[in-house]
């Protein structure tokens, strides 16, 4: 089948220079949230770049507030799957060609990465489309249920949730173990909580943000710590599996 989805972009009030990030595309269910920054994760961003496995290349056009991006996947191209995008009804060309044998029968899922933006999706539930659908393509919601693939289901109750807490001195290998354990158990969909994990996601065009914070390491750590505290508060209300990968400094009594 040939499938399609539409995404309408809305910016939220800015709080820093260049505050808005929107990247849309497709990825496997086993991929992380960082669209376009690992294998089998294919994104197209508002900067006019496409990316997969952290490799960014020029593609299409830049897009911003009030633009509508259509994400197209064509599975009827022989031995390949073709992914392309449209901006406000204009086709931007094929962005990715992936051999079906590399996907190994695994399904591609719609994926969006945003920062400080509100977005609106159309999977086919709207009576009117933003722009006309290209011939031969069908909205995901219009596909028969038998042709859809269900994503991994999370824990049904908090009693079924897992929380693993890493214990050890700095540089003892806790983060390495956590990442490997999460990768070895994809069905668990572990969320790793820690400043290292947060900073790894604070990338600019695929590069770790540390390179853009020369001389301001304390600022980066402070921001990552604030994010971690907020994520822990959110995690307490969600039914998910977590790995807490954070060194907790012991309290020392005065004079002791």
From TrEMBL:
Q: Which Pfam families match?
A: AAA_33, SPRY
| InterPro entries cross-referenced by the UniProt entry | B30.2/SPRY, B30.2/SPRY_sf, ConA-like_dom_sf, P-loop_NTPase, SPRY_dom, SPRY_hnRNP_U
Keywords in alphabetical order: Nucleus
Domain (B30.2/SPRY) ranges = 1-128
Q: Which GO terms describe its biological process?
A: alternative mRNA splicing, via spliceosome
Its Gene Ontology cellular component terms are: nucleus
MF terms in GO: RNA binding
Q: Where is this protein localized, as stated in its record?
A: Nucleus
Chain segments annotated as transmembrane: none
Q: Does the keyword Acetylation apply?
A: no
Highest taxon of the lineage: Eukaryota
**Entry protein name:** HNRL1 protein
Please name the source species.
Answer: Chionis minor (Black-faced sheathbill)
